[in-house]
Structure formats: C-alpha cells, structure tokens
Amino acid sequence: MTDLIIQGINGRMGHTLVEKISARSDCRIVAGVDQKAGQIGDIPVYASLEDLPEAKGIVIDFTSPAGTVHAAQFCAAHGMPCVLCSTGLSKEDEAVVEQASEKVPVFRSANMSVGINVLIELARRATKLFDGEFDIEIVEKHHHNKLDAPSGTALMIANAINEEAGGKYEYVYDRHAVRQKRGAQELGISSVRGGGIVGDHDVL
C-alpha cells in the first residue's frame, strides 16, 4: 500500500484526487495539506507539510509555484518522492525542482491527462512530417479563475513542437501592438479565460 499526501487537497484537483484514489486498493491518502486545516472524511488536513506527524509517503502537489517549490524542498530534505503538477513556475523555481530531483524521485508535469500527452506526441510527429512548411498557432481556453497565462499545458505543447523543430520558433503571445506580416518562425500562443472551462487546447 502506497501512502499519499495531497498538498492542495481543498482545491478542484485535490477533490478529484480524493474521489479517484478512494476507489483504489493499492494506495491511500494518509494526509492532506492546505491553508484551511481540518478534516475531509477520515483524512486529516494540515496547514503545512511541516505539521505532518510523520514525513513519510509520496507528496502530490496541486497548488501554486510557491507551493511547488516548498514541496520540492521539503521532500528533498526528508527523502520523500514527489509529484509536482502546478504550472507557472519561473526559471528559478524550475532550478529548485531540478536540484530536488538529484536527491529524491520527482515526477513533474503541467498536465497529467492522457489525451493531452497524446496530442503532444501527435504535434511532434506532425512537426517532423511537414518539416516546418506551415504556420503553427496554439489556442488554449480555461475558466476565469485560472491565474497563469498561457497555460503550462500550452507551453508543454509549444516546447515539444519547438524541440522537434530544432528550437527555431519564437513564441508570440500578443500581436495587437505589432503591425507587420506574420513571421515564418513565429509560434503563436493565445489564451482565453471565461466561465467554467476546465481546459481546451487546440493546435492549428
């Protein structure tokens, strides 16, 4: 039985994890971490990782860049594997995560969806097949509460395409102040925020 600790357990993804993991027999949630401490069913929720009665298990983080960095540092210090799923990390944040991965197992992804990862692989193959003879635009849509733009998933897709193309593309996020023809090596990324959209990503 694998013990799991969910940081961000009171959030949307935290609730989803509680629902999905409770139906499994090979793992269990032994604790949650969130700003609002308390209880979710039989799961104790603590205000911080430092409040855990025992530093043991795998930490799954769905919080914020600051929360992700803290989780990485805590897990590295206590020899705990971690799964980091937050988006919007800076280069400095990514460096902290990379340092943690030298001490403990770290799984990092901006999107855990099978469908998105299939889309990324298809985008890679299309890039190789057409060899850059086409324009690329990525349009991502999310609910109005999402903080970062573009989404981490949109950047994952763009980075996969750019890696396959040898890094020749320049990302363009805003064209309203630029009155000129679209460059051949531009990769446009547009963000839409509204309503309760969970997350849509189109590669054009």
TrEMBL record:
Coiled coil: none
The UniProt record lists the keyword Nucleus: no
Keywords recorded for this protein, A-Z: Amino-acid biosynthesis, Cytoplasm, Diaminopimelate biosynthesis, Lysine biosynthesis, NAD, NADP, Oxidoreductase
All copies of domain Dihydrodipicolinate reductase N-terminal, residue ranges: 4-112
Domain Dihydrodipicolinate reductase C-terminal: 115-204
A Gene Ontology BP annotation from the UniProt entry: diaminopimelate biosynthetic process
Signal sequence region: none
Gene Ontology MF annotations: 4-hydroxy-tetrahydrodipicolinate reductase
InterPro entries referenced in this protein's UniProt entry, alphabetically: DapB_C (IPR022663), DapB_N (IPR000846), DapB_N_CS (IPR022664), DHDPR_bac (IPR023940), NAD(P)-bd_dom_sf (IPR036291)
UniProt GO cellular component terms: cytosol
Family: Belongs to the DapB family.
Name used for this protein in its record: Dihydrodipicolinate reductase
Origin species: human gut metagenome
